[in-house]
């Protein structure tokens, strides 16, 4: 085993660290040293805490609530009820493949580090560059030239992390929009003279939410562990309370036949093909089931990370699939009039789930206050989702800067006395806020950028898996968690699924196609791809050599 590991390290251009008798008792700590990194973050998270971060970012209350309109418009109850399992099965396949790699390489760098180690010495620089690696330690000595190179590579090197920031942006912006709807309903609703906050107020909400998230993430990891577990508990309890309460309170409920067989083809998008409609409706499920790579980014702070990191990934996906389907069913049984829920003329201004909650209580008690309180439960879950997302972002930014991949890397890499990468925390919050500012100019531009949160992240998920089943098929050294002889087969299923959804989610979502209805997902993702490849061909291939370590060998 040791001989294979040394051979793998040489093949990938990375040094293997022989720590001999000084091997730490924690297996994750020992493996980190073998990979060539110092233990700089406090390793204090249990497997439950690791799971909690990914589960809170997946947050079925967040994803389903914010994209429920999409599910209703494209296919309705059938798309949501069955599409959830279609997306869930393939997402679990991706998660299993990632968990196997995480067990072998439990570092905060996650995806981009995996790509470098799995692609072999010849391809490591290009592979890690494409996934989002770091710049080589062999940069020209001139400080001006070094700054030029760092500035030039900042966009492509962030091909992976930009998806992470886009997730935080979309989650916290979704919370700001939900607060807008809660205020609207609390002041009388759309038809009762309620107050509809302007886009400037919404962006103010967004900034305030990010500020609180940055403050919380500056606390010691023991506090973050507590908040993470609280978030996981809130999501589970919240789901079961809402899935039982809403259909119970509603005076009108749909039948089981409607929930399991009604396929909605009435949309204002000019799309009539049932298959096309079903595919577009899958976006709700696939968008929700993202972010579980957080367990990998938290491995340097997790005890026995080579075992508990993979457990965090798999359990967060599995439990989210079960809990999410329960939430979908419970809410959908209270749906009786899809066109009305999607209409901008209803009290919630077209926010479907908000209208479902509001009508359920108003129809029985004459007031929708109970529904507004239920929206508050969802709002807290979204808040926790954004909090955990900032945590994951900051650890990835920390790993990038540790490897010298960002301008001012030494600054972003610093940890405080509580061993928290506090500068990376505030960087993540500021970048996420700046990304949301595009909403002031055009919601179309904002939605195009946020689309990277789904397609861009899954492309980043697929790259190390692809390298594991191709270039590293015979050389991959599995960790404590592995898929055995099924690893390659599951890997191919994962890669093909990502390729499929990348194409499907790039298709037009409305006809005729105009500048306002064009799906800008391929433009946003393709633009990043062109920048990444272009900068590699023009500059990086001459000096970027791949992984480095921060332990002397």
UniProtKB/TrEMBL annotation:
A Pfam family assignment: AA_permease_2
Molecular-function GO terms, alphabetical: gamma-aminobutyric acid transmembrane transporter activity; L-alanine transmembrane transporter activity; L-glutamate transmembrane transporter activity; L-lysine transmembrane transporter activity
Keywords: Amino-acid transport, Membrane, Transmembrane, Transmembrane helix, Transport
Entries under Gene3D superfamilies matching the protein: Amino acid/polyamine transporter I
InterPro entries the UniProt entry points to: AA/rel_permease1 (IPR002293)
Chain intervals with Basic and acidic residues compositional bias: 1-10
Bilayer topology annotation: Multi-pass membrane protein
Origin: domain of life: Eukaryota
Chain residue ranges for the region called Disordered: 1-20
Protein location: Membrane
Family per similarity comment: Belongs to the amino acid-polyamine-organocation (APC) superfamily. Amino acid/choline transporter (ACT) (TC 2.A.3.4) family.
Name used for this protein in its record: Amino acid permease
């Amino acid at each position: 085993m040791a001989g294979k590991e040394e051979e793998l390290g040489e093949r990938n251009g990375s040094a293997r660290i022989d720590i001999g008798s000084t091997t730490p008792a924690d297996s994750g700590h020992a493996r980190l040293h073998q990979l060539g990194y110092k233990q700089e973050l406090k390793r204090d998270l249990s497997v439950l805490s690791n799971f909690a971060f990914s589960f809170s970012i997946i947050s079925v209350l967040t994803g389903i609530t914010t994209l429920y309109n999409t599910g209703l418009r494209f296919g309705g109850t059938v798309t949501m009820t069955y599409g959830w399992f279609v997306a869930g099965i393939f997402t679990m396949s991706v998660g299993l493949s990632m968990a196997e790699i995480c067990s072998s390489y439990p570092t905060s760098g996650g995806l981009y580090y995996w790509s470098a180690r799995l692609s072999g010495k010849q391809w490591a620089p290009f592979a890690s560059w494409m996934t989002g690696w770091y710049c080589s330690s062999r940069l020209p000595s001139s400080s001006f030239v070094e700054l030029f190179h760092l500035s030039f590579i900042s966009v492509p090197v962030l091909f992976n992390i930009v998806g992470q920031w886009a997730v935080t942006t979309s989650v916290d912006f979704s919370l700001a929009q939900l607060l807008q709807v809660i205020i609207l309903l609390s002041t009388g609703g759309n038809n009762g003279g309620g107050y509809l906050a302007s886009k400037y107020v919404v962006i103010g909400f967004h900034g305030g939410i990010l500020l609180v998230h940055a403050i919380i993430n500056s606390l010691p990891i023991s506090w973050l562990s507590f908040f993470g577990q609280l978030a996981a508990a809130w999501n589970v309890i919240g789901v079961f309370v809402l899935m039982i309460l809403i259909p119970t309170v509603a005076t009108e409920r749909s039948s089981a036949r409607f929930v399991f067989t009604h396929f909605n083809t009435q949309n204002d998008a000019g799309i009539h093909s049932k298959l096309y409609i079903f595919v577009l409706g899958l976006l709700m499920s696939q968008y929700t089931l993202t972010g579980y790579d957080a367990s990998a980014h938290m491995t340097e702070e997790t005890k026995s990370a080579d075992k508990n990191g993979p457990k965090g990934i798999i359990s967060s996906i599995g439990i989210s699939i079960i809990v999410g389907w329960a939430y979908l069913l419970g809410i959908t049984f209270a749906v009786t009039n899809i066109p009305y829920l999607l209409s901008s003329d209803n009290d919630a201004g077209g926010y479907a789930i908000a209208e479902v909650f509001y009508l359920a209580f108003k129809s029985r008690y004459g007031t929708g206050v109970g529904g507004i309180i239920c929206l508050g439960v969802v709002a807290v879950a979204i808040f926790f989702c954004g909090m955990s997302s900032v945590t994951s972002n900051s650890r990835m930014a920390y790993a990038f800067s540790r490897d010298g991949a960002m301008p001012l890397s030494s600054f972003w890499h610093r940890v405080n006395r509580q061993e928290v990468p506090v500068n990376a925390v505030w960087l993540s919050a500021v970048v996420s806020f700046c990304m949301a500012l595009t909403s002031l100019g055009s919601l179309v531009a904002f939605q195009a950028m946020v689309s990277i949160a789904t397609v861009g992240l899954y492309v980043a998920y697929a790259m190390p898996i692809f390298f594991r089943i191709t270039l590293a098929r015979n050389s991959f050294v599995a960790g404590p968690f592995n898929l055995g002889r099924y690893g390659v087969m599951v890997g191919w299923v994962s890669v093909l699924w990502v390729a499929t959804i990348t194409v499907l989610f790039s298709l037009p979502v409305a006809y005729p196609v105009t500048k306002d209805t064009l799906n800008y997902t391929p433009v946003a993702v393709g633009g990043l791809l062109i920048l990444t490849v272009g900068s590699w061909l023009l500059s990086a291939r001459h000096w970027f050599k791949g992984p480095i370590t921060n332990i002397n060998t």
